[in-house]
Amino acid sequence: MEVRDIIIIGGGPAGLTSAIYAARYLRKAAVLEKGVPGGQIAMTDVIENYPGFPDGIRGMELMQKFEEQAKRFGTEFVNLFEVKALEENDDLKIVKSSDNRSFAAKAIIIATGQDPKPLNVPGENRLIGKGISYCATCDGAFFKDMEVAVVGGGNSAIQEAIFLTRFASRVLVIHRRDQLRADKILQKKAFENKKISFLWNSVVVEVLGDNKVTGLKVRNVKSENVNEVKVDGVFIFIGYIPNTSFLKGIVELDKNGYVITDENLQTNIPGIFAAGDARANTLKQVSVAVGEGALAAANAEKYLENI
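Below the sequence we write its predicted structure tokens.
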């Protein structure tokens, strides 16, 4: 089995930054990625708060630049379906994929990010792809001149609601509280957009429709009244679940499944580091992921020098 110096699990902004730094340290590094490099950010329409782009930049474009830079420095990219296990074997770490491949390295950087959290209500599983989406950038164009709902009140929800007004005739934001959690500048844009309306103190309890979404059952959390809302589609942004299930019993995780590290981004196992959205940090942003990706690679380099 070929042994790399560093294996980076995940090709989002944290993973790609780690790859750039690892390659510049002249380390034999490989990025294991199950999809298109860029992760969730590649599906974001416009990023307005990443330094260096005063007019904003499309998420896919930014991640393509990251990928090109990593490849220019000689990073190896390996596509696989999914990582299913991480094991220790003497001084080596072994990554096993669900397609029965194994990869060995002296150090590991976990940059697996997180996936959207589902509502877990009746009708959701049945109607995914039939009016239910977790990515407005991916699916917004299918809802031209239709009425859609966005569930959530954070940055992702409001940013995607604003994006959906390019296509939809009406965007209804459904939020369980009476005020948004999104950044103030995003709130201002949403409140000023005539296509966006709000349903406060409300949660979705069922998605309606047989072969496609026709509406939602919504419960008011204060009055407990349940009403039906007619929409042609629903976009769900109520939070995220870290992609760390393969680490259970190996690397220490917090109660929500995020990787716990020390100040050097090292886990409880020497030589295994974590960066970005899969790590237990307080701010899930591209700039944070980039900084952590660089720091994880730098500390992985120190680890390799000492063994």
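The chain has a mean pLDDT of 95.
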